[in-house]
């Protein structure tokens, strides 16, 4: 459901219809993509959640951002200003969404961790699979900027004859990040009291598989060979939220997709997303996004009408 935060799906998060996207893939078939997003007016506000995915979005800014706040796992993690020409990271495993206060023009590079691991292996750095940029950390890198500016010229003059160059640029950027920004497992030791990476992946996948009906803490703990208390404490230290909150937030992601693509009533969407009733859905939605589901849906409809006018 959440795989591939680029193109139309990324556009829905920013309420931008059909943003231009270029794609490529690695030798083993991992998808690489870049999407151009542009917002002409200031005061945009909060984006919609992008969903959970084992991948990164690498954002190259062409316009200065003086009011930009990043949220991960349902909580604010940093509020920063970004100068034009800088690059920062969104980790899609942490369900990011952002507050945007200024006009925006950026390229968002979609880069799965599988692609980074694949390229790292080719570079004989077998342990690298994560990008070692922290939330709020940004870099000014002439190579990334040069690749981005070259891609902008292709966006302005699209042609199938450009695909070999697109492949070269996107695969080259992946190799560049694997070589210059990827961390290794030895440098990212497990923090005491957190879940091991395999445990966190297993728990989140089990909850995704049981998104509608839910799953007990005991079942999750047994799968990780932990007590229920240790599972809850470890999960919260690893993600910043409890398993129950994480599950509710994934249901919100699903509800947003349903609200974006159907005219179904909010009561039915609440049921389809696994909430006990519309009231519960509204409370959780408002807690996470700061607006009610009805207000969010109304604002999105207005944005889409303006976009297509």
What is the subunit arrangement here?
single chain
Task: Please work out how many helical segments DSSP would assign.
Answer: 11
Tell me the total number of β-strands.
12
Strand content: 15-25%
Number of domains: 2
Principal-axes shape call: globular
Strand order of the largest sheet: 1-2-9-4-7-11
Major sheet characteristics: 6 strands, antiparallel
Q: Please name the CATH architecture of the largest domain.
A: Sandwich
CATH topology description of the largest domain: Jelly Rolls
Commentary on this structure:
This protein is α+β, with helices and mostly antiparallel strands and 309 residues long. Helices cover 44% and strands 21% of the residues. The protein folds into two domains: 8-186, Jelly Rolls (Sandwich); 197-308, Arc Repressor Mutant, subunit A. The protein has eleven helices and twelve strands. The strands form three sheets. The protein has a six-stranded antiparallel sheet, sandwiched between helices. It has a four-stranded antiparallel sheet with strand order 3-8-5-6, with no helix packed on it. It has a two-stranded antiparallel sheet with strand order 10-12. Strand 1 (21-25) and strand 2 (31-39) form a beta hairpin. Helix 6 crosses helix 7 and helix 9 packs across helix 10. It is globular, with a radius of gyration of 20 Å. The two termini are 30 Å apart.
